[in-house]
Write a structure and sequence with these properties.
The chain is α+β, with helices and mostly antiparallel strands. The chain contains one helix and two strands, in the order ββα.
């Protein structure tokens, strides 16, 4: 994961790293997560899931 503009990493900085021993290619540097972006994607997916039946119902009623 590349450093963000909010917190740049310099050579020699200490970072805490989490990884899955079963797949060590997946690494998370603690403190550089972007929970806001992740929550936005989750909320967007929830909106799509909740609106899909309404849209299908509206199309079915309109096509009668």
């Amino acid at each position: 994961m590349a450093p963000t503009h909010r917190r740049r990493l310099n050579d020699g900085d200490r970072v805490f790293v989490l990884y899955d021993p079963a797949d060590p290619r997946t690494v998370v540097v603690l403190g550089l997560e972007r929970p806001g972006l992740e929550r936005a994607f989750i909320a967007g997916g929830a909106v799509v899931v909740l609106l899909a039946p309404v849209i299908v119902l509206a199309v079915a009623v309109a096509s009668r």
